[in-house]
Design brief:
With 270 residues, the chain is of the alpha+beta class. It is built from 7 helices and 17 strands. It has 3 domains: 53 residues, Structural Genomics Hypothetical 15.5 Kd Protein In mrcA-pckA Intergenic Region, Chain A (Roll), CATH 3.10.290.10; 99 residues, Pseudouridine synthase (2-Layer Sandwich); 77 residues, Pseudouridine synthase, CATH 3.30.2350. The strands form 4 sheets. Strands 7, 8, 9, 10, 13, 14, 15, 16 and 17 form a 9-stranded mixed β-sheet that branches. Strands 3-2-5-6 form a 4-stranded antiparallel β-sheet, with no helix packed on it. A two-stranded antiparallel sheet has the order 1-4. A hairpin with a 2-residue loop joins β15 and β16. α1 crosses α2.
């Protein structure tokens, strides 16, 4: 079954659909050695190239993988760093003909759950504001926080890039000047959680993302380690992104199915 070229290449983690459309207009993409056209449909047996490099094609959900990574403080979310700082990609399993795409980011001083996938379209959908996926954080706050402050954070505070608010705030313990709170919001603006607390006169001393959409940070997952998500959790992510998820057939099952298809009935012995 054919699919639009923009959709197929976005899913291959090359970029967003808009980026792919620009590449098509620039003549950087070819299909079967002919310049690609906007809106063109392709099948998995066709040869698609970007800047002369062959791009493997496959259907959504059949081979894609999703990881939950526990990012420690001190790591950055870019693939390479001129300053030589460690990146999250240093610890991930290596891929052939694919790449890991991070679903959102965490700044160098933040820790917790990062989702990574080989499905670029899934990553773009999960990050898009229109899907309003909840992000939940455990936040240790230094400073006096009273009920009026919490109410203000729930109603909305002014930041330089617009008003921001927490959908939910609940106390999570602590002592002395340091108090823990669990907060949820549906946006992913840069350093938004820290800036919101700063706007009410409090300072975040620790920030840990503990949930992204339907996926929570596994309790047993240590910092700097990753865990591959399995079918039910991946299906929940695709549903949250408004995408169809095709359950992959395990290699052994495919071989058994093929064997049954060609097997001949045994002769009956009398």
């Amino acid at each position: 079954m054919s699919e639009k070229l923009q959709k197929v290449l976005a899913r291959a983690a090359l970029g967003s659909r808009r980026q792919v459309e620009r590449w098509i207009e620039q003549g950087r993409i070819s299909v079967d050695n002919k310049p690609a056209a906007l809106g063109e449909r392709v099948e998995t047996n066709q040869v698609v190239r970007l800047d002369g490099r062959i791009i493997p094609l496959h259907r959504g959900g059949e081979r894609h993988r999703v990881l939950a990574y526990h990012k420690p403080e001190g790591e950055i979310c870019t693939r390479r760093d001129n300053a030589g700082r460690p990146t999250i990609f240093d610890h991930l399993p290596r891929l052939r003909n694919e790449r890991w795409v991070a679903v959102g980011r965490l700044d160098i001083n933040s820790a917790g759950l990062l989702l990574l996938t080989t499905d670029g379209e899934l990553a773009n959908r999960l990050m898009h504001p229109s899907h309003e996926l909840e992000r939940e954080y455990a936040v240790r706050v230094l400073g006096r926080v009273d009920e009026a402050t919490l109410t203000k954070l729930g109603r909305g505070v002014r930041l330089r890039d617009g008003t921001a608010r927490f959908d939910n705030i609940r106390a999570a313990g602590g002592s002395g000047a340091n108090r823990w709170y669990h907060v949820t919001l549906r946006e992913g603006r840069k350093r938004e959680v820290r800036r919101m607390w700063q706007a009410v006169g409090a300072r975040v001393s620790r920030l840990i993302r503990i949930r992204y959409g339907p996926v929570s940070l596994p309790r047993a997952l240590r910092a700097g380690k990753w865990q591959e998500l399995e079918h039910p959790a991946i299906a929940d992510l695709y549903a949250a992104a408004g995408l169809e998820y095709l359950v992959p057939v395990p290699p052994r099952a495919r071989r058994k199915r093929a064997t049954r298809a060609v097997a001949r009935p045994r002769a009956m012995h009398r």
